[in-house]
Design brief:
Number of strands: 14
CATH class of the largest domain: Alpha Beta
Mean pLDDT: 85
Distance between the termini: 37 Å
Shape: globular
Number of helices: 27
CATH topology of the largest domain: Alpha-Beta Plaits
Strand content: 15-25%
Largest sheet: 8 strands, mixed
Structural class: alpha/beta
CATH architecture of the largest domain: 2-Layer Sandwich
Low-confidence stretches: 172-186
Number of domains: 4
CATH superfamily of the largest domain: Nucleotide cyclase, GGDEF domain
Length: 610
């Protein structure tokens, strides 16, 4: 008997018996039309799986609560638009309940408490509305542009324990009327730190203002009494004119911190303003004119000012964590910030550049834990993505140094998984996720390791989370194409392909020297049948990096799907002996090769694995 934690959506038609009594044929046609025109497409688009259908309802399973709730919202909004011009007595409306819970799996069906709670939530939802459990509310956080109305603890039929229920406010008027951002999470003030403006007059100094912002977000995130919007969500506002009330509503927070940074030589000026998003009221503001060496003291003062203004109680260990300067060397810090900015760009050239910045930071301060972790991160991506001979021993040595200096660094745990046994890998990644739940790198690397070990469902969930954290990342979506296909989720595979084409195209424009968007994007083009463009991207990838084993491997995948079997096998025979340990395991689970597994040359290629 299999059990798993999953997101469940339960829905039924409001007043179905009355509608059937009035017009049976018309009601059946209308319900089926809505399912075909709206619901089925939204379920597929949000990676859902329809478990069962009844005359007036359905049960759907999703890989994440974010996907489940986003699907529910889109369904209700589109059904509402469809009903706008229809008489009240002919409208088809749905109630929807969404829960995250434990289920029992039997074949294609699911049972258990998680399903029962979803069904009961649906029964208490308002017509055209969505009711969710507290487990969904907590897990979604502020990742969706929604407002939640706390309906309190409720005793649901045949459910032993009381469930805290939230209503999702869908109407614009209800959003404005009901929005109380302070309730973003029960009992915790909520805040978003928008990217600080670079006032230095030099675009090259952008890395410094972004770095200050990111470090303030990191410090505030260490405080258990605060809910802090993750970096990637906050940075979607970078370079855009922002209305505080609108941003607060979109991010679902009660407070917004904005500011600016001006760096000139050995001096720095930082301004910060804490704004109440509900009415745009000014809560706190300060300007700091200091030597650059005081930059950590400035960050500390801003953090403590926010804590004081929001009346948040700091735990003793939190006081120690946010008061700990990562380095006493301001020049090392600036090199580290440059490195981190380059690392976020995720291409071979920028990994190499970032590594040099981190190495310079270590040279200036041999006790700089984050810089050692940064070197290990760069080496991990260079090894996994570009097969660079960086040396696994060096990666482990740098992470060991980082953790010896600061054992709470999430980014130092993930690289330790490279080239190690899966049991050790899992322990490192689980610790990394606990320390950095919003880290893209941790989820992405964990997903790769899981797939290489044949943990396909786990890999899917981790790649999906990585894609949620970084919606602009083409890599996670592209790798999900193969994984969905392995899981028999063909609709999801095609949808991922459609989404990934745009992301990979954007990356090719930004980094035309990098073969990775081209050779990974081949799969995205093949999914919707764009075979001619897929061949163009094959030619482009091989022109950029003809001898790169990863390029050869992914082009071989594309050739296989296009039916060019001999060309695929030629490239496999050339690439397999030079692939790293993770990819030599990966090939065993790669669905692209399912059609040629019995081919003698494919079998011979496997014998070449080191």
């Amino acid at each position: 008997m299999e059990r798993r934690l999953t997101a469940i959506l339960a829905a039924d038609v409001v007043g179905y018996s009355r509608l059937m009594g009035a017009n049976e044929a018309g009601t059946l046609t209308a319900v089926n039309t809505i399912r075909t025109d709206i619901i089925d497409g939204e379920i597929a688009g949000h990676q859902g799986r329809t478990v069962k259908l009844t005359g007036d309802g359905m049960l759907v399973e999703f890989p994440s609560v974010v996907s489940a709730l986003a699907c529910a919202v889109e369904v209700q909004r589109q059904v509402r638009e469809r009903n706008a011009d229809m008489p009240q007595d002919r409208r088809i409306e749905f109630r929807i309940g969404v829960n995250l819970g434990d289920v029992i799996v039997e074949g294609e069906d699911i049972f258990g408490d998680g399903v029962n709670v979803a069904a009961r939530l649906e029964s208490v939802a308002s017509p055209g509305g969505i009711a969710i459990s507290d487990s969904v509310r907590e897990r979604v956080g502020n990742r969706l542009d929604l407002v939640f109305e706390d309906m309190g603890e409720q005793k649901l039929k045949n459910i032993e324990r009381s469930i805290r229920v939230y209503n999702v406010a869908l109407e614009d008027s209800a959003v404005i009327k009901a929005h109380d951002a302070a309730s973003a999470l029960p009992g915790r003030p909520s805040i978003a730190v928008l990217p600080f403006n670079n006032m230095s007059g030099d675009p090259e100094q952008e890395y410094f203002s972004d770095g200050i912002t990111e470090d303030i977000i990191t410090d505030l995130s260490k405080i258990s009494g605060l809910f802090v919007v993750a970096r990637h969500a906050a940075f979607t506002y970078k370079g855009k004119p922002v209305k505080m009330q609108q941003a607060g509503q979109e991010l679902g927070v009660a407070f917004i911190l904005e500011g600016s940074v001006r760096k000139a030589g050995a001096r720095v000026r930082v301004t910060g303003q804490l704004i109440r998003s509900k009415d745009g009221g000014h809560v706190w503001g300060e300007r700091f004119d200091r030597d650059l060496t005081d930059i950590f003291a400035i960050q500390d003062e801003i953090t403590h000012a926010i804590v004081e203004q929001l009346k948040v109680e700091l735990l003793p260990q939190e006081k120690e964590l946010i008061g700990r300067a990562p380095t006493e060397n301001a020049e090392a810090y600036t090199y580290y910030l440059r490195g981190r900015e380059f690392l976020h760009r995720h291409s071979k050239f920028y990994y190499q550049l970032a590594r040099r910045m981190f190495a310079k930071a270590v040279e200036l301060d041999p006790l700089y834990a984050r810089a050692y972790a940064g070197i290990a991160d760069c080496d991990s991506f260079l090894f996994l993505h570009y097969h660079e001979d960086v040396g696994i021993d060096g990666i482990l040595a740098n992470t060991a140094k980082a953790l010896a200096l600061d054992d709470k660094l999430a980014e130092a745990h993930a690289p330790r998984a490279v080239g190690r046994r899966y049991e050790e890998v899992m322990a490192e990644f689980e610790q990394a996720i606990a320390l950095g739940p919003d880290s893209f790198e941790v989820h992405y690397l964990y997903a790769r390791a899981s797939f290489a070990q044949g943990k396909i469902k786990q890999a899917a969930a981790l790649f999906e989370r990585a894609a949620e954290i970084r919606p602009d990342d083409y890599q996670s979506i592209c790798l999900l194409i193969h994984i969905y296909r392995s899981l028999g989720r063909d609709h999801d595979s095609k949808d991922a392909g459609r989404r990934d084409i745009k992301l990979a195209e954007r990356e090719l424009i930004l980094h035309p020297e990098d073969p990775r968007p081209a050779h990974l994007g081949i799969a995205a083009l093949i999914e919707p049948g764009e075979t001619e463009r897929a061949r163009e991207w094959i030619s482009r990838a091989l022109a950029i990096a003809p001898d790169d084993p990863l390029t050869q491997y992914n082009v071989a995948c594309g050739y296989t799907k296009l039916g060019a079997i001999d060309a695929a096998l030629d490239l496999l025979e050339r690439s397999v002996p030079r692939l790293g340990p993770e990819l030599t395991e990966w090939i065993k689970h790669d669905s692209d090769f399912d059609g040629i597994r019995s081919h003698p040359r494919y079998q011979k290629s496997l014998e070449l694995i080191r």
